[in-house]
Amino acid sequence: MTGLIRVLIVDDSAVVRQVLSARLRENPGIDVAGAVADPIFAMDHMNKSWPDVVVLDLEMPRMDGLTFLRKIMEVRPTPVVICSTLTQRGAEKSVEALAAGAVAVIEKPQSGLKKFMETDSGDIVAAVRAAAAAGRRPRRTTPIATAAPARPAVVASPRPKPMVNLVAIGTSTGGTQALEVVLTALQPGVPGVVVVQHMPEKFTAAFAARLDTMCRVHVKEARDGDQVVPGQVLVAPGGKHLEVQRMDTRYRVRVFDGQPVNRHRPSVDVLFRSVAKVAGPDALGVIMTGMGDDGARGLLEMHKAGAYTVAQDEATCVVHGMPREAVALGAVDREAPLSSIAEVIHHHG
Hints:
Helix content: 25-40%
Radius of gyration: 20 Å
CATH architecture of the largest domain: 3-Layer(aba) Sandwich
Largest sheet: 7 strands, parallel
Number of helices: 12
Order of helices and strands: EHEHEHEHEHHEHEHEEEEEHEHEHEH
Number of domains: 2
CATH class of the largest domain: Alpha Beta
Shape: elongated
Distance between the termini: 39 Å
Structural class: alpha/beta
CATH superfamily of the largest domain: Methylesterase CheB, C-terminal domain
Number of strands: 15
């Protein structure tokens, strides 16, 4: 996209509005078009001038953020970044918001301006840029009150592939919705699946729990030592790396601390590289929607080790960055639309 990224901040805390505005305004490509206290004020602002990205609190007076998010998505789908507290309630509401169409979640600043600016502020800038990379929608003049038509489904035909016993999936921006599409389509006998989704600490447990209620496979946040078994999906905990280890003829996961890789913890590259090392042609690698290049080099290692590798196609990605980088490296055997990825996995397993 070209030009400034116009951001509207909606948060009932004056301090948070000040902190986020100050951090975003120091970036030349970002313009804070407004910072308002609640969705009612935001509606007035947006009906006059629609932003490119909305940074949205969830707990606010007069109207909660989740209700407002759904109104935005009904009228004019717009990239929304959720600014949430790291609490159980905050995590659950944030997962609901992601399912409703939010692009990303960041931790709400809990400290003073100085500390946030020095140590904690990188995620907000990255999240806004990632959200903006999803692309601007055409402008419309209709006030917030009407509904827009649903997006059309994408249809694809799969092709059979060799058998595998392990599926590794990596994704980032837009990945929560993409994973919901893929995992809810999986049958109970599918090979064991391990997932890295870029998400803050404490949010992945709520995310996995929600998916578990929707899927025919069992979905859980991974714990150190968990075995990779058919019909189960292990999601890397936020704030921890996850790698796969071999134990005789089976696989288990190692969950551990470590420095961020490609700015992320968990990192898709950490997962994919471990799978390349211990599973080789016994594995299938899938890289899906996300900004940046985390996972591209790891997928190349899987490809070189004999694994079959798949990238989500550009047309169905929220942000095509990660899959594009993997394709550019020659790491991908097949590009597939989101709607066919579950079928590809079943044809391998």
